[in-house]
Specification:
Elements: H1 3-9, E1 14-17, E2 24-27, H2 37-50, E3 52-55, H3 63-73, E4 76-77, E5 92-95, E6 118-125, E7 133-137, H4 138-144, H5 147-155, E8 157-161, H6 166-169, H7 180-190, E9 193-200, E10 202-204, E11 211-213, E12 219-222, H8 227-241, E13 247-250, E14 257-261, E15 265-269, E16 279-285, E17 299-305, H9 307-313
Parallel strand pairs: 2-3
Antiparallel strand pairs: 1-2, 3-14, 4-16, 5-16, 6-14, 6-16, 7-13, 7-15, 8-9, 8-12, 9-17, 10-11
Helix pairs in contact: 1-2
């Protein structure tokens, strides 16, 4: 599917762009597994063009109906380490009282090689104030790089891992009293299997042909680069992703649904709501192994059970 085809398909939907570079709200669609094929095609086309799309007031969706709708967009997959909600096949719950505060910039599950192509997130319990999610366009971030940095990025590969520094990246003051043990259990589960995967920093999008950046908090280091230089390089490149011109911020209401192209975005759940309760539920769609500009494919180098977790689980 090309970008020109995506643009023509959008005529079937009532689409309202939120910013000039990323994000659009779609009106007049009641999400369900019963949507006509043409509507599903138009939703996918809008997703490819706008990178993240929003649907207000989808309060009719239950867990099972969210999963059923996801199947119309592709093949759902469960998280590689975190268990799904009881009674569901694929649904991951992010509960702020149980460690679910993803307040750092990331692309979902890049610590595996074929990380998800898309995510479908539903607002269940939303704070009265705060709790927004912000998305960034990694295709326009690549386009913004000066030619010399584009050439450098295209040569770079990075190791991604689910063993990252929560204290520096995902705490943000989110652990309070009653939440501490739940957060600890969540983090232990998250690394119950340890992954390390090598990805190109620049991938070619398999549907649009765009070049997008694979960065975010799962990066451990760049291959062949010292730790200190890796840190500087990461800050330099990541800074292009998160420029204000490159992002969209969504103010949630219960029942809202956001769908994003996980191959062309990063996102950040803003942890500014204190002890208020925030619950969102996500289904991810199976992805493809990234291909670099020179045709090489990502590869998982490590996948092993964490011995410490196995001992505790026993």
């Amino acid at each position: 599917m090309t970008l020109s085809l995506a643009a023509s398909n959008e005529l079937e939907l009532d689409i309202h762009p939120v910013t000039g570079r990323i994000g659009a709200e779609i009106h007049g669609v009641r999400l369900s597994s019963e949507l006509e094929p043409a509507t599903i095609d138009a939703i996918r086309a809008a997703l490819l063009r706008h990178k993240v799309i929003f649907f207000r007031d989808q309060t009719h969706l239950t867990d099972s109906e969210q999963e059923a709708f996801a199947k119309r967009l592709g093949n759902p997959v469960s998280h590689p380490t975190v268990p799904v909600i009881d009674g569901t096949d694929y649904l991951l719950e992010l509960d702020s009282h149980r460690g679910g505060r993803a307040n750092s910039w990331h692309t979902d599950v890049t610590f595996v090689d074929d990380y998800p192509q898309a995510s479908i997130l539903r607002g269940v319990t939303i704070p009265d104030v705060g709790g927004d999610t912000v998305w960034a366009n990694t295709a326009t971030a690549y386009q913004d790089l000066p030619p010399a940095l584009q050439a450098l990025a295209e040569q770079l590969w990075a190791v991604h891992s689910n063993e990252y520094d929560y204290a520096n990246h995902a705490n943000g003051g989110g652990e309070r009293g009653r939440d501490v043990e739940a957060v600890k259990r969540y983090r232990e589960q998250f690394v119950s299997t340890r992954y390390e995967t090598e990805h190109p920093v620049v991938r070619v999008h398999p549907e649009t042909g765009e070049r997008t950046l694979i960065l975010g908090h799962f990066i451990k280091h760049f291959i062949g680069v010292t730790p200190s230089a890796s840190a500087h390089l990461f800050e330099l490149l990541q800074g292009y992703v998160t420029r204000l011109e490159n992002i969209v911020r969504w103010r949630w209401r219960a029942g809202d649904v956001a769908i994003w192209d996980n191959r062309a975005t990063q996102h950040y759940a803003v942890n500014d709501y204190g002890d208020a309760h925030r619950v969102v539920r996500r289904v991810t769609i199976a992805g493809d192994v990234p291909v670099s500009v020179d045709g090489r494919r990502s590869v998982t180098r490590r996948r092993e059970q964490n011995p410490a977790f196995a001992t505790r689980a026993a």
